[in-house]
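Tutorial, part two.
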Amino acid sequence: MALIPADNTFALLAVFFAITVIGATLEKTKAGQRVSGVMFVIALAIALANFNVIPASAPAYDVIWTTLVPLAIALFLVRADLVSIVVEGGRTLVAFLFGAVGVVAGAWAGAVLLDLGPHEAEYAAVFSATYVGGSLNFAAVAEAIGFRDPTSLAAGVAIDNVVGLGYFLFIGAAATWPSFKGRFAWRTDHLGEPLEGDDAAQRIPTVIDLAVALGLATLACALGTATADALGQPSYAILYITVLMVAIATLGRRWLRSLAGPELVATLFMYLFFALLGAGADIGALLGAAPALFAYVLIIFAVHMVFILAGARLCRLNHAEIVIASTACIGGPPIAIAFAVLFGWRRLAVPAVATGVLGYVLGNFVGIGLFEVLA
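Running the prediction step on this input gives:
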């Protein structure tokens, strides 16, 4: 019996918000910068659940699954207008698409070569979704395909963070290798020049900003869910939500690009999602799943690299475009733009964001599509 009963929704949410504060704070420390705040959140939730402070399941957790996760992805897509993505993505977008195809091919090949147990198709779906898009796609696809085993999902997130960190260290080192830079040296003369408008100051969100973003996100969720129900596909509502939100973002691109703060709210919702994964995780089963998933993620990354390098050679892309496209694909816009800043590739800052946002759009379709193929 947990100290906080499952029906005490406010107390559980208070604990989850506290876990989020601790995880986000630790992420800012020198040691925490090497580990995602998500890992701290999951670890804290696992500890509290195993010491019977919080329950493994509760009605509040279902609300996070069914309401906050779709809202989070809708909020992340508020600025996902297709016009800007194509115009600003440029050549980096081409590399990104090759990398995304590589992720799908790697996820399929890994599922064929390895025995991932009863959740093989589900793992392929969530990993392909997160490595084309981001963590929000991981959560959204898990909800869409009914993959709700907290232990299996927590194991996936843990492996993603561990192997993903190694991948970013590797590609960061590769970006400085003379042999790599020499093989992909086309059009590298002006990488340090900024694209127009890429250094606009970030505004502090206002009540109007958040109200508009949340209003549009909830509208897209309502219409997307209703459309899915009407077409007899209620479990795939997230796909219709994605399409509607992209349409809204594209039609209102000039107005919506000035909004501040939607990603902040979406990130908060995702932290709550990872906290509930930790609360329901079984440590023994989590550790048991690690070896196979470790090999699986390595296969995905290896095939991704083969495809993106082949595409770069075919389309004469340079080493910086490869690095930014790959990090946008595997890690999302924050990681990609961090690499652009780190290496002084100011001209690739906007393409890093544009291609990463496209990943958010495509991730759900990729994950659910691969699940249908493998299942």
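Residues 75-265+280-374 form one domain. In part three we will examine how such features are distributed along the chain.
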